[in-house]
Amino acid sequence: MLSPVQREIEKYPIVRIKSSPYMPNIKFFKSTKFVYPRPNMYFSDLPHGYLSILKSAKYVFSDRVHTCAAGLIFGSSCMYIKGGKRSNDGRNNLFLRLGLPEIYNRPVSLDFSYIEAEKERMTKELAVIIPS
């Protein structure tokens, strides 16, 4: 029997995405276990469905840097949840570089004017390093 899970936040439906519907059984490598057989689960081997879900999402909560990055680019408010194995590998420092230190505490949105200013600054710095 499955335990109940939250189905919505502020009247927005929750869609849980996963890259595979199965988790390998560590004891017996040849067997697998179905993960998250719950409503509103999405899993695929292709990126298009994930990107479509992230593009239409109002909020994205994830422990995956690339999931939050895609959500931010599409205009969603995102919160990065530290705690996974990859939380300590430094990838999430990208959010600090993007001017989003609060992404660890609450959902935030990308400031596209900040991104444009950073792109201009980088272009000028590269022009000095790589003369035309």
Low-pLDDT windows of residues: none
Mean pLDDT: 83
Q: Could you give the count of β-strands? A: 8
Shape: elongated
Main sheet: strands, sense, barrel: 2 strands, antiparallel
Helix content: 25-40%
Termini separation: 65 Å
Output the strand order for the largest sheet: 1-2
Topology:
Blueprint: E1 8-9, E2 12-13, E3 16-18, E4 22-24, E5 32-34, E6 41-43, H1 47-56, E7 59-62, H2 65-73, E8 77-80, H3 94-97, H4 112-129
Parallel strand pairs: 3-6, 7-8
Antiparallel strand pairs: 1-2, 4-5
Name some characteristics of this structure:
8 strands; two-stranded antiparallel sheet; 132 residues; alpha/beta; two-stranded parallel ribbon
Explain this structure:
With 132 residues, the protein is of the alpha/beta class. The protein has one domain (8-129). Helix content is 31%, strand content 18%. It has 4 helices and 8 strands; from the N terminus they run ββββββαβαβαα. The protein has helices at 47-56, 65-73, 94-97, 112-129, and strands at 8-9, 12-13, 16-18, 22-24, 32-34, 41-43, 59-62, 77-80. Strands 1-2 form a two-stranded antiparallel sheet. The chain has a two-stranded parallel sheet with strand order 3-6. β4 and β5 form a beta hairpin. It is elongated.
Short précis:
This protein has helices spanning 47-56, 65-73, 94-97, 112-129, and strands spanning 8-9, 12-13, 16-18, 22-24, 32-34, 41-43, 59-62, 77-80. It is α/β, with parallel strands linked by helices and 132 residues long.
